[in-house]
Amino acid sequence: MYRDFVVPESAGGQRIDLFLTQSCDGYSRTQIRAAVQNKGAELDGRIVRPSIKIQSGQKIRFRVPPPQSDDTVPENIPLDILFEDDGLVVVNKPPRMVVHPARGNWTGTLTSALAFRFQSLSDVGGPTRPGIVHRLDRDTSGAIVIAKTNAVHIHLGQQFHDRLVQKEYFGITAGNIDRDRDVINASIGRHPYQRDKMAIREGHATSKTASTFYEVISRHGRYSQVRLRPKTGRTHQIRVHMAHIGCPIICDRLYAGHCQIPATQLQGKPAVDGEPTILDRQALHARALTFVNPQTGREMTFEAPLPEDLQRVVDCLKQGGRV
Known about the structure:
By secondary structure, the chain is of the alpha+beta class. It has 3 domains: 2-63, Structural Genomics Hypothetical 15.5 Kd Protein In mrcA-pckA Intergenic Region, Chain A; 69-162, Pseudouridine synthase; 163-323, Pseudouridine synthase, CATH 3.30.2350.10. Helix content is 20%, strand content 28%. The chain is built from 7 helices and 17 strands. Strands 5, 6, 7, 8, 9, 12, 13, 16 and 17 form a 9-stranded mixed beta sheet that branches. Strands 1-4-2-3 form a 4-stranded antiparallel beta sheet. Strand 12 (211-220) and strand 13 form a beta hairpin.
């Protein structure tokens, strides 16, 4: 299928792949760039490269790539199962794994791994989210519960809605936390300028109340290990709240302004040229999850061990900082 565009004045000087990404919903820039590279775009009748700059009034004909399927494609991806019975599964999600398919992340997801391993999962969340009751960010590791049946899904979902599920996270922050423990109450809404971010926005139409309890486990110079218990479950809640008090989760690209850190920086020593990074994803881990098993009525707690990358950071802080 082809789509025709006339370049508006506001898009003058843009790369053609960026313009097409903004104009064609449902496709990542990587997909659009590949389509243009495969001779899929004409500018005033001439086949062009993805990097070509477009000008106001020019005509574009674009061969739109086939849309991605909404169905979850099973993939043989190993899973760390913390618990399983007839109604639910608790998984220790690794970092860098997206929970369900979305724009730019159609493969390698948790739902693809679940679809391969389990014959039956709940379909309350729709075809792209089989079994998914709640979610974790791509770079947040740790415990996540999956429903096998619709009845269990609805029961668990109600527990989350009623704030009966207890969630505990482990995080490493930068900055000086001046209190040993506190509760952050600050409403969260969409960022006014960056669509992939959230922000503290009191009284805004997109805002929802949000509450996070934190407790300092140990301090190491300007870094701290913290225990975090969110009462609500807003998008990016812990990350936004900790950044709000000036102590962002380290290696948080969106809210800390950096996405990697070397060992020398953690230890307060001068940087070494060419030194490898010790961490390259946000230092946030869903350590424990407590809820009532819908089938037995028993309250259960599941703990996800600290992953190797965060354990290395903890060891580094203990060696170079003060506890």
